[in-house]
Amino acid sequence: MPELRTYRTQVHNDWCPGCGDFGIVNAIQMTLLEMQLEPHRVAVFSGIGCSGKTPHFINAYGFHTLHGRVLPIATGAALANPGLTVVAVGGDGDGLGIGAGHFVNTGRRNVDFTYVLYDNQVYGLTKGQASPTLPKGIKTKSMPTPSIVEGVNPIAMAVASGYTFVARSYALDVRHLKQILRAAIEHKGSAFVDVLQTCPTYNDINTKEWYSGDDLPTKAPRLYKLEETGFDGRVKDPTKAEEVNAKKGSALLKSFEWGDKIPVGIFFKTEFPTYMDQLAERMPVLKDKPFVEQDVYQRDVAPLFEELT
Fold first, then answer.
1. 71: pLDDT confidence band, cut at 50, 70 and 90?
2. How far, in Å, CA of 26 to CA of 29, rounded?
3. Domain boundaries, the chain
4. In this prediction, what percent of the chain has a pLDDT beyond 70?
5. What are phi and psi of 139, to 5 degrees?
6. pLDDT score at 297
7. Helix (H, G, I), strand (E, B) or coil at 32
8. How many Cβ atoms sit within 10 Å of the Cβ of residue 95?
9. Cα–Cα distance between 298 and 145 in angstroms, integer?
10. Which of 152, 219, 240, 273 is deepest in the core (most CB within 10 A)?
């Protein structure tokens, strides 16, 4: 039976002390353990950035892709082998900067895998420049002047793009993050989890103390759990467009809460046929065997080569 060490590797981890990445990797490993997933049935894909090293530290199949390209490559793996549990990870710069186009198109396809966004609002690997999620007017310690552009809202963007599971958690609350990750992995469809995290080296604004609300008069934590307020983002009848749209509207409104109070939890969840389901309808051969089990040499391609010579 798998143990927690089953999902750990011996690769040296050189992330900065106090980095939120540690909490995210621990939560992923704990989720795999709780779900009793065998390492050879799991594949972790990453982009470029500090978070890009994640596959090195998780004992499963891993793929370190190009900057901003983690989602199309993870899509290919999920389509080729639906028997894999596919987890894509990447930073806010990787996913919502150069990778923003892939982020939108992956959502509308409803591919069955989970995308975990490491959201610290800076480019941590390249000395702390403002990432797409940094709010306008904020100046972290490595920036000469405050940001002059509006920040991207990952939750709102995911809901608008068509992801069928949209949630947020916090890297330093590993227990809650584990619960959210398990719900995302178990969801059949495109699951997106925005993970707020600290960057102790470059982001001196959104620190552990800031999330704890130490600067507020009430000293109350900024983060609050949606499920504890009665908020329910789950669509009960996906065939009713008015219910789906109403839940999306509620999720969008909640996603713009930022400042003294920040919600975490599941913002939106519905069920629709996945991209794999629809592909199998067009290609019946996939109902019996996925791409990974198809005999790619069964077809005689000699006539094609003769045409090209």
1. very high
2. 5
3. 4-308
4. 99
5. -125, 110
6. 62
7. helix
8. 34
9. 61
10. 152
Contact 96, 219 (CB under 8 A): no
Taking residue 281's Cβ as centre, other Cβ atoms within 10 Å add up to: 11
SS3 per residue for 109-133: HCCCEEEEEEECCEEHHHCCEECCC
- What pLDDT does 291 receive? 82
Kindly tell me if the per-residue pLDDT of 298 is higher than 70: no
Q: Which stretches within the chain are classed as H helix? A: 21-34, 54-57, 70-80, 92-93, 100-109, 154-161, 174-186, 208-211, 241-255, 275-282, 285-288, 302-308
Instruction: Name the pLDDT band for 308 (thresholds 50, 70, 90).
Output: confident
Q: Which residues pair with 194 in a beta bridge?
A: 117, 168
- What is the model's pLDDT at position 296? 66
Domain 4-308 part of CATH 3.40.50.970 = yes
- Could you give the residue ranges of the DSSP H alpha helices within 152-240? 154-161, 174-186, 208-211
> For residue 141, with 0-12 CB atoms within 10 Å meaning exposed, 13-18 middle and 19 or more buried, which class applies?
exposed
- pLDDT per position as a tens digit, 92-129: 999 999 999 999 999 999 999 999 999 999 998 888 89
**What pLDDT does residue 43 have?**
98
Is residue 69 within 8 Å of residue 18, measured between CB atoms? no
